[in-house]
């Protein structure tokens, strides 16, 4: 049986068990502040389950036709980003009602999505994959979550939104992305020990500027290499 177990942190008592489909990556996200929202896989392929504990409400979202490969919640639990094993599209949903708010295109070729991350103000979404490019997407979503899903009469390939900023990292190495405390900065750390701090232009976009690069797997008595 595939389950997600929810415990009371203080009493260590089991509160809830959720049955899911196969979940070899252990995909599960919890909102960091605000309302208590948990996201995990649903029972069917491409499905995610949203549990809103403060509202005692559960929602199943058919996010993709393929298996879900990566999920992320905004800090307040209002927005959900998902990517499938195909890796070409990232979709952003409203967790309260399951509406598709925005569809983002990472690329035209398949990829393995390694990491998704919302900025704290939910204006940006960062995405990393095994293709060696970190993307930053602009999110056109109101702070109250009232914006309707984007509509377009164009074919899906054309109507999906492309990234506005990019940064190159070595291919086929897993990289995790996050937003820095400094405005318009992205932090990237790879499984090879390499750390990058980059800045993107929120208006012009394009290639990000590298501000720092360090290798944390080097001996402690050696100097960091900054390139």
Automatic annotation (TrEMBL):
A single Gene Ontology CC term: phagophore assembly site membrane
Name of this protein: Autophagy-related protein 18a
Bilayer disposition of the protein: Peripheral membrane protein
Pfam families, alphabetized: PROPPIN
Organism: Sesamum angolense
PANTHER family: WD-REPEAT PROTEIN INTERACTING WITH PHOSPHOINOSIDES WIPI -RELATED (PTHR11227)
Lineage: Eukaryota, Viridiplantae, Streptophyta, Embryophyta, Tracheophyta
Keywords: Repeat, WD repeat
Domain of life: Eukaryota
